[in-house]
Write a structure and sequence with these properties.
Number of helices: 9
Largest sheet: 6 strands, mixed
Structural class: alpha+beta
Shape: globular
Helix content: 25-40%
Low-confidence stretches: 63-69
Length: about 325
C-alpha cells in the first residue's frame, strides 16, 4: 500500500518499508544479491578495517566432504580480487556451539580454495597445491547475547571482536590468514542520535532497519544511505518479497506459540496457587524457548523477567 507517496508492505499486520536485516532471509536478499557488492564492500571495509576494492559473489551452498555429510549453506559467500574469502552470517537465535560453527565454516572456505587451486594448477600442468590459501574471514552478526565472551577483557571496540590463531604463551599470531569475526548486535543499544561514527551508523541501521519509515537524516549523504535504498521492499522482486514475508511470519508464529504456551503455564500456576518464580511449567517453557534458539534477552523481553533469572533457569 502507498502512504504519502511511499510504498509499504503489510506483513502479519505490521507496516514494513524496509526489510528486517536481522532475519537471515532479509539479510541475504539485501546484501547478498547482485548489485549490492558496493554496499557489502563498504560495510566490510568499515567494520573489519580491510581494504577491499572489488567483491564477487560465490555460491553460498557448500557440500559436505562425503555423500553422508550435511550441506552447509552460508548466508553470503564472496571473494575479493586478491582471492580473500568472506563468509558473512546473520545469526538471530542463540546457538550453543556457534563459535565452533564459525571455525567449521572457516575450514570449508579453505577446502574450497584448495579444490579450485588444485584444478587450476592441474590444468596448467604445475605441481600440486602447497596449502598456501588466501586470507579468509568468517563474519558473524550476532543478534543475541554471546555468553562465551562474558568475562573477557574489555576491548577498545566493544561490538566487533576478531579472533586469530596464535601462540597461547606469547600471543604471537600464526599468520595463516584465518579471521573469525563476531559482531555483537545485541550489545549495540545506541540511538541514531548517539551514533558518532560510520561504524555506529552501519550497526544501528542493520539492527533497526525494519523499524524505520524513512532514512535518518544523519545517515543521508553517507555510505550507509545506499543500504536504505536497497532494503526497500518496493525494490525487491515479487519472489523476494514473498520469501521475506514467509520468514517474518514464521518467526512471528514461533514467538506467538511460545507466548500462548507461557500464558497457559501462568494460568495453571495461578489455579494451583504456586509461586510463579518457582513454577515448573513456566521454567519448562523458558527452557524450550532457549532450546529452540531464542536468546536470553529475547526470552526475558517476552516473559518479562530479569536476564539473570532467565540465565539461571536455562542452566538448571
Amino acid at each position: 500500500m502507498e502512504i504519502d507517496g511511499i510504498l509499504y508492505q503489510i506483513i502479519d499486520g505490521k507496516l514494513y518499508r524496509y526489510a528486517d536485516l536481522t532475519l537471515d532471509k532479509g539479510f541475504k536478499i539485501v546484501l547478498g544479491r547482485p548489485g549490492s557488492e558496493e554496499i557489502l564492500k563498504n560495510l566490510l571495509n568499515r567494520l573489519l578495517g580491510v581494504g577491499i576494492v572489488h567483491l564477487e559473489y560465490r555460491s553460498s551452498e557448500y557440500p559436505g566432504m562425503t555423500e553422508e555429510d550435511r550441506t552447509s549453506r552460508f548466508d553470503i559467500y564472496c571473494r575479493d580480487k586478491n582471492g580473500s574469502s568472506f563468509i558473512i552470517e546473520m545469526q538471530n537465535w542463540s546457538q550453543k556451539y556457534f563459535n565452533k560453527r564459525a571455525v567449521y565454516y572457516s575450514s570449508l572456505a579453505v577446502q574450497n580454495q584448495a579444490v579450485e587451486e588444485y584444478r587450476r594448477q592441474k590444468e596448467e600442468l604445475k605441481r600440486d597445491w602447497d596449502y598456501d590459501f588466501q586470507p579468509l574471514y568468517v563474519v558473524s552478526f550476532l543478534n543475541f547475547r554471546n555468553w562465551t565472551l562474558d568475562g573477557c577483557e574489555r576491548r577498545s571496540n566493544e561490538y566487533v571482536a576478531t579472533y586469530r590463531y596464535c601462540d597461547v604463551e606469547t600471543g604471537n599470531e600464526l599468520n595463516d590468514g584465518t579471521n573469525l569475526v563476531f559482531i555483537d548486535l545485541d550489545r549495540f543499544d545506541k540511538t541514531i542520535d548517539a551514533c558518532d561514527s560510520l561504524e555506529d551508523m552501519w550497526l544501528y541501521s542493520i539492527k533497526n532497519m525494519s523499524k524505520q519509515s524513512f532514512c535518518p537524516n544523519t545517515v543521508e549523504g553517507t555510505e550507509v544511505e545506499e543500504l536504505f535504498r536497497q532494503a526497500e521492499l518496493a525494490k525487491m522482486t515479487e519472489e523476494q518479497r514473498i520469501s521475506f514475508e514467509i520468514s517474518v511470519m514464521s518467526r512471528n508464529d514461533m514467538l506467538n506459540s511460545f507466548r500462548e504456551t507461557l500464558e497457559a503455564a501462568k494460568e495453571e500456576v495461578k489455579a494451583k496457587g504456586l509461586a510463579e518464580g518457582r513454577a515448573e511449567g513456566i521454567n519448562s517453557v523458558i527452557k524450550q524457548m532457549h532450546t529452540k534458539g531464542m536468546s536470553i534477552q529475547q526470552i526475558a523481553d517476552i516473559v518479562e523477567m530479569p536476564v539473570d533469572e532467565i540465565q539461571a533457569i536455562v542452566q538448571l
